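Quick one - first record:
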Amino acid sequence: MRLRGAPLALLLAAAVLAACSSTDKPKPKPLPAIEKPIAGRQVWSARLDSVRFPLGVSTAGGVFTVASTDGTVLALQPETGREVWRGSAGERLAAGVGSDGRWAAVVTRDNELVVLEAGKKAWHKPLGTRVVTAPLVAGERVFVLAGDRSVHAFDVRDGRRLWSVQRPGDPLTLARPGLLMPFKDTLLVGQGPRLAGLDPLRGTLRWEVPMASPRGTNEVERLAELVSPAARIGDLVCARAFQSAVACANADRGNLAWSKNVGGIEGVAGDDQLIVAADASDRLSAWRTASGEVAWNSEVLMHRELGSPLMAGDTVVFGDASGTLHWLSRDSGAPLLRLATDGSGLAAAPVAIGTTLLAVTKSGGVYAFRPN
């Protein structure tokens, strides 16, 4: 089943992309006037090669670490955009970038894991499996979640393989980034619709929580993998199960807090008050973090092909297919501010360090914004 699952996953991803680019798709809803605007502006920009792979932007170590299709990996100072360091993987990229502020890890199209230290290539290792999820660098280790949802751990200093785990999984997997993140002394991994807590030293399973109940009459309809980004709020980890649910689990105790059946393909954002996400039609919903009760819904950005959001203070920020960033009120969903990039669409969810928000576009534009 694994051999058949990989090409089927690719077909599924292609179908999703084709649907997004169809001439029959609904027209975006006209943007409403902003009644109570907030002030914000672009403060600096940089330029990379195109970003035609699933990009993860790291904020570890107080710097933005980004990467581009041609293998460039770049760390930027958030206040001014000054280059902290620049390096290269030497090959075109398929996934990245993960960083702990010192080490940065990417995966090439030849399925090779490449680790850099302050921009200098430290080591590289063939993986023998396709990867679309940015590696995780934490605790002197590099963790890789492969396309077949196997998990691999390497010593960050010398590339020595420490362990690999292939757990029973679903026959199909998505050709898009899965969930891979740290929580205290536990490694969190999405395994289909289940959130698994692994021992990062040995790879053994500590607990497992079903975040969604897959529905449908065939394998494609029942596909409900956890996708990134997820949101961590204290002991809660909240995530999207592809086209199935938004759910939160207590990652300290290893049990489900709540789950809501809702479609959608992008990740979530949240804080101690609200969890926010868009559904497949770009209808926005906010759920109360503690209970999962609906706090508000909004249709102001319908059919704009929204990416994953960022919670930033009293606002939530979405990027759309045109690369426009929309700041909305966290408490009501009302529009507050719109700022444009280069029109090519965002390559990753926006991220922030302090008051500086960073957006990276598919054409390689790197844009920093800040409230006035």
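second record:
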Amino acid sequence: MSDSDTPRGVVFPSDPATGRRSTTVVGRAVVADALRAHDPVGAASAERETSWRQGYLPHFRRLVEAGLVSDAAAVGIARDGLASLHARMRWAGAGGDVPLPDAFGAGGVDGAGGAERPATPLGSETLRGEGEAERALSLPYGGERLAADALRRRLDAWVEAGTVEPSCAEAVGRVLDHPEWLDLRDHTVVVLGAAAEMGPLRSLLRWGANVAAVDLPRNDLWDRLIGDTRRLAGTMTVPVRVGDGPLAARAGGDLVHDLAAVTEWVAGLEAPERLVVGNYVYADGATNVRVSTAVDALTERVVAERGREAVALAFLATPTDVFAVPAEAVERSVRSYAERRTSRLLRVPLRTVSGGRLLRRNYVPGQDPGINDSVVLQQGPNYLLAKRLQRWRATAHRAGGGLVSFKVAPPTRTRSVVKNRALAAAYAGAHRFGIEVFEPGTANTLMAALLVHDLRTGSPSQGHPWQDEAYAAAHGGLWTSAYDPRSALGIAALLGFASAR
């Protein structure tokens, strides 16, 4: 795959012979480098993979499995993967490619030989909402707004159905017990990807928080965010370019192309107690790796300047990835597989005609931990590399003593999902297999409540990086389903198409 159409800013390296920017070469090399010290056989296998776009999945799975050997192995894989990606990615300007760290010498590259030019600093403007701060947690669900006992019953129902981990309900229950936790005015929460449907911005503003919002400089995007802020209770500080005109026309920062200026702006923010850097960015294809790399470079710089203890990191993980999961989730899935009477009548003939590809069991009984593979192959290796980069940063920051809020979010009907007809249809039929697909308002409020929990409790380590990732996961039932999610995806899509008609 080529990235030659976007040659400026944070880019994939260029092949000197062809000039092409290959995402395949980088993805394969980064995975191999991450594995090399702890799974040399796996590293060699990744390097020999000749069809990366079709054959990437076993190598990403191996990254998880190799890390289960020990805490040190998981942390080592994370650090080596981060180092490899940062060493390979480049900063490109009019003067050509330079190492990624050189981006911080300026806001761009100008002139022959890549000489740096001074960055134009971004200014700040702060909007204060006019609403009353909410001091009790509530969650939109099924056309209602659930609070207090009604919300506790919904959490219990999700646990009973296997939709969320029990620790997720416990964490949200603690926020219900401590409504004063919602008052985050002692933090500054940087929301990178402020307009993201899964992001916490609107919930934080409802609770009266101080939010620093970063997203692309687009009038329509900032018109919406400014309007939301004025109706709500918190404050939103935004980066602005020098000039006249309405705020929406001057607000925003492009992480891929203006990395140094945005990083300087974030590093200089005031925070009464702690700066929280939340990564909620998303883009299609190769751009997703570029923007995720930019965020990670920003994060490294801000942590280095302010100190690890002064900066907390927040991430939302996709449920469509490979995770190690607790034995309890495995046991629930195994029971469900044995008890699904209707499916037992269908799965033998379906597995026979499909060569064993349909309705496979989710786990081998007795696994502890189990390996859940819910990857949607159509999302591709760039998507998985971008998300793995975030997981690696969370692991490395926590191992160094930093506070991390890392949460697996549920499958959600976001715009980026429903624009893919096949995936939208699979989501529409997923309930037939015990998987609940959330509405964006429910999912992002639930995730914001878990962020509050982690900031107020210090998000202590659970003992091993895989357990930190699994803690309080809201996987929608993908971890507890009777069937390997990919083996049921096609049938769910057919059922979803039928119900849509």
